[in-house]
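User: Can you help me understand a structure? I only have the sequence.
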Amino acid sequence: MKLSSKQTKLLFWVIFILALVLRLWGIHHELNDYHHFRQTYTAMFAKNFYEHGLNLFSPQIDILNYKNVSEFQIYPFLVAILYKIFGYHDILGRLLSLFFSMATIGVLYRLIAYLLDEITGLFGILLYAILPLSVFYGRVFMLEPMMLFLSVSMIYTFTLYLDTEKTSYFALAVLSTAGTLLIKIPTAYMLFPMLYLLIRKQGPGFLIRPRNYIFGILSILPALYWYFLHARFFPQDSIVDKELMGMYYSSDAWDYYIALMKSSKTWKSIYLISIAEFHLAISGFLFFLGGVILLMKRWRNQSNFQKFEYNSGVWVFFYWYLGFNVFILSFIAPNLAHEYYQLPIILPSIGLASYYLRNAFEYALNMEKGGKKTAILAVNFLLLLGILPFSLNKINNRLQQDTFYNDFSEQVRKLTSKEDLVIIADNTPRTEVFYFSDRKGFQFIIPGAFQVYMEGIEESYQKQYIQELEELRSQGGKYFLTPYVELPGFLPWLHAYLSENYECKLGCEVTRERSLMRDRTIPGFIYDLSSPLKK
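Assistant: Let's start by predicting it. Here is the structure, written out as tokens:
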């Protein structure tokens, strides 16, 4: 199976345009489609860079008591620069993600074509162009599209550097590796394919080459500084909580992680549902398995596929995939909670899947006419073709806009002023109301309905919640806001305290019975804390 240079270029651009068209779907949406929490969280950094100065080393959000582990916010920083040029519009963040997603297609093609061949590269970018979560997360207001672009770039430029030893490729490899680690330090799993490339090219001698150590130091130091030192040197410019970082690997956390690992539901959810179904659209997962099986047979010299000569470059994707599985084990809880944590696994999976497709079609096309040839071609073609309608369905589901937080935020804008500090209560950390209402203030985590139902809230804990609320009020919180419709139903003690002590501005007539029904027409609740009611 051979293509001329003209045919290869034509197919590349057809696939590129297809990928672009799919990613333009919903590009105009507000940040209220799937994963609106993470999108508004990222957009809040861009908003603060835009409004309070382009200081990349002092990322801030509108939640004054927010503490967490902050990635290096280069992506929202770039969005803020676009805001300065074109005005404050959410679509600019989506367009920047689209740019990185489309750039990934170009680099991924060049990487696969370099390690294997151009036809395999075309199969690879076709899969990347149409896989459902590759499309959806290729136009979201999140860090992931930029991180994927840098991940592919680091492998490609590092490969070129090892093969040519050119200083330009060395510099590009350092920049892309450092950028990848800065955006997401868990991408240290990329050490697996890079170590393989070193051993393949230099053998054990890679350990005594000074330039390799220089590369490692230059690539890793920026991330080490940002995640472990910057908050200590400049605590006023950081939202990093050192205690929270330690909690991720406390003894209690490890007990929880081990319990998750022992559950078959964990692995089913991550590998069969999230990765096999959502990320790889089932067909892509089958192609990936075919690539692994073919690779193992090649390794044992048992493969019947002989037309496409063995190329050790495919092992890059195999070790890349193995490295990502180490990441899953190391961060099992967030991988179980968030599908976008597995987004990077698309890249090595595509490498192995395209390796299989290239071999399968080559093998079938070189067979004599007959039923076996027809069956191999038909099955693989139909599986490949079936990805697109499957993806369209999954993408459409994630593009559904949820206006719940927008509607509540509109009420917040009507009843409060931009200068007012607000206390926004919800049963999990949320950023949507802060972002959509354009308000600053404090987050106030209240018990969720499930927690109340299963455990109840003892009176002593009720007093602690009320005390925390009053402390936030003493720090300037002027309004208590919550879109949590179950407030009177599941937290009657908190609802009663607010109603008895402060003026109700929204949700005043909502009954406990209506709240327990989780009526989505309940507008939410707003209380004015600035003037306590006289008793």
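Now, to help you interpret it: The chain has 26 helices and five strands. The CA atoms of residues 423 and 453 lie 25 Å apart. Let me know which part you'd like to focus on.
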